[in-house]
Amino acid sequence: MPYLILLFLALFLLGAYIVALGFLLFLIATFAIVPLVAIAAVGAYAVAAILPLILLVNKGLSGIDGDLATPAEVVGGRVLGARPSGEMAAHGWDPAWPLYFPYQAKRDFKAVAAWMIGFNLAALKLPWRWVSALWLRSKGFSRWLWWVPVIVFMIPTVALPITLFAVLETLAGAIFIGLLWLVMTATTYLARAGGAAYGATERSSRRRASKELVCPTCYRTTLTPGYLCATCGRAHRLLQPGPLGILTRTCECGSRLPTTATRAAKAHLEVVCPYCDGQLSATAGARPTVLIPVVGPVGAGKTTFFASAVVGMQDYALGAGGAFEPTNPAATQFASLASTAELLPKTAFAGRPEVMTFEASRGGSTHDIQLVDAAGEFFVDWESAQALTYIDSATGWVFVIDPLMLPEVRDVIERNGVDLGQTIVGTGDIGGAYASVVDRFKASGGRLKDKALAVVVSKADLLVQVPEWSQLREASAVRQLLFNHGADNLLRGAELDFEKISYFAVESRDREALDPSRDPVRVIDWALAQKRLKLSFMPVAAQPAPVEDAAAHHDPIVPTK
Q: Mean pLDDT, to the nearest integer, of 546-553?
């Protein structure tokens, strides 16, 4: 009988235990699960929406070890991909910090996604580890008496809500990160499009303003000179909107630089050639630039022509309230010789011809004029002219002919008793000098139709002493002299090669007795006009009738076979 009572009591207690567990589950289901699920869902949404932004904005405080896209990685080609072209081909990317979108943003998003995945996995595992640890910690009868209700309570109130939170947060986080990725992509393409449009507008504006420049060292032409960082001196060879910045770029040292040559010039940064890092004048690329190369055989009068032109431009500019000043050592030395020496030394045939850069200011506008005087030995043949690549960059070429090199002209002068005195007569072949430049240019794929040619007859002060040439002023008269006295084949070839060709006769010795129609400055003004620049040196009162092109007035030319 006592055993029956004990059994009944045990069954009663077990039933009460089960009823209590059931009542506990009812209370949990009624008052805990629904609110906890709601809290878990709201929390998951909030965390998924806010946490990625917090992590992206403040990675340092978040503890994310993100992969930083540094200037060193940019230079090493690990950020922007393929090496740049054009001016940057030989150097690679500039040492600057890349745009956040998309370069650093991609790395940050990967770091955020990895952190959130780890966070959610930990959230999924943690409550079930707690439940497992509690269950395994209990032993014997107490496992069923005490730990079952605890575990029954923990699963719906702790484990399930946290699990639900992790699952929902993972889903919501994926959605929000995806949306942020779409925003990043759209921002990237908008920045690229805006930068490309900005850069294209800048380059177009500079091209229209004739701001191309020729490096005096390597002879290459560029619209975008390189600049040195004012803080650390690192070279930034391609300042234009792109992956390193749209409006500004940040140098490796932290200094900000403008992304256009126009604004860089206003910042007074030191200028270098983007190809060879050669030093350029402080004004390089900041204003319209005109390159004027002179071509001709040894002793043709090229140097004397330039010397008279430089002195004349200085006088004309000063008289108009402007200036014509040298801006590099080669120009300074030449200007000094031109103004002081009665007889300039022959241009040395050594090394590469130096580019002489002058700053010309007149009428409120300022331009850079680059003059290049190469020794006549460079124009012997095609091979000797290979180094003269700067000629390709000029819109107009100046070809100087010594008329005394034409036997027929010499005969006329001698018959008329003109005293040549100590006049130096050019040597070599006029036609060969012309062909050396033209053939090299054609071989490089150039289009002569895009160039203009000024044929300049030097030593006109001797020619005008002959009665029939005393009025040697107009282009047609100069052309006729050459055509009728031994240079007809040369002219035929030149007028077939060039669509725009003009003829000049120049006096280069005595500027005080100079006839304005034979002033070498006229040739410079012609070269400036080829660039469509509103700049000229000779005053209107001193200008003769307009220069005629070959096509305007000449004898019919039949190409020779």
A: 46
